[in-house]
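Record 1 of the preview.
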Amino acid sequence: MTVTWTCRCGQVNTASVPCSACLNPPPEGTILGATPRRAAYRVPLALAVIVALLLTVGIGGAVVVRTDDSSRGATPRPGASSEQPPPADLTALVADLSRFVEGARGLSFKEPVEVVLLANDDFKARLLENAELDATEIDTTARVLAALGLIEPDINLKDAIEDLLGAAVVGFYDPETRELVVRGADPTPGVRITLVHELTHALQDQHFELHRPALDDADDESGQAFSGLVEGDASRIEDLYRDSLSNAEIKAAEREQVEQSAAAFLGIDIPRVLVQIIVFPYLVGPDFVDALLGAEPGRLDVAFAEPPTTSEHLIHPERFLAGEGSVTVTPPAADGEVIDEGVLGELGLRLMFGGGPGADVAANGWGGDWYVAWDDGDVTCVRADLVMDSPTDAAELRDALDAWAADHPDATVSGQETVRFTACA
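->
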């Protein structure tokens, strides 16, 4: 999936959002409004439970090129042909971009890629149709996030997710149908950049198989970790293509992104945590892939067969390369029927602690964890047991959780080697 934006507060993200959504303060010396292409990792935050929902819209996708559905005998989708360039032009463009992707990635397409360009409203409808968001599951997730203090209890999380996806996503690939869909009726510089990103997903899919249902259903971080690998690889190729454009084309693409996002986000109230979650693979993925490329020839391709499994792997690629895994933690006992469970991970801790140097120290050294959630009347509670790499790491985590609990009246913290917290809301 492709998301693009520039945050207008000196911090560059991967799509245009209000400054309140910036993930960290601008670097020292940054001129406000400057827009370097890749932001350094500071606070990539995610919970596997939300990431699983976002994965359903095609994060880590693939591709094939068409202008309507007639080739399969289906009814053409609204807006899928009248505003598009002639099929021959689109086919020639995709063929040209495919050759670029092949050369940059060092792999060849096994079959042509089919692409659908859709105008804005049709694209949003198609995206949400593909997402298949489950209202019951999202409601449970919302209660868990509220218990952790990450969103307000009265937020309609399903509406917020739909608003965010509809505003931020400019392209996606569905690995089940092998269909690449891009927002934009004309092949502008911004649309071409998106096509390169999604064509990279198509190439990945043809060689490594991106449709991995077990990852979507996992309670751990394996799906989100795989997404970081997939998006990091595609973002790298996208950057190479962008660098090949003229200054005029680059400026035109930036104007497209700003104009689209300014209109899309107008009047939308999206919890900051959702923005942080959706951009996480794009923030850490490129550096993770760079580390693989620097390790040994062919290491990137090997990673698709033996991918990262934790957020710690993405944040600290040297630990992935060293073969460091996570500790299996026995689920803590719940005080009621379990409605949700899984792994918080290093990123979940960073999310809870709000980012910054303190969060880095407290979350670094994560070894493993497991959380459970249950309802107690109209209150939802979350309990997690966490194991760190060393006694020093455990002490730092305990100190950070004690400080966190002081701001959450219903939270308690206990334990030294295995640190436990319980929070309700």
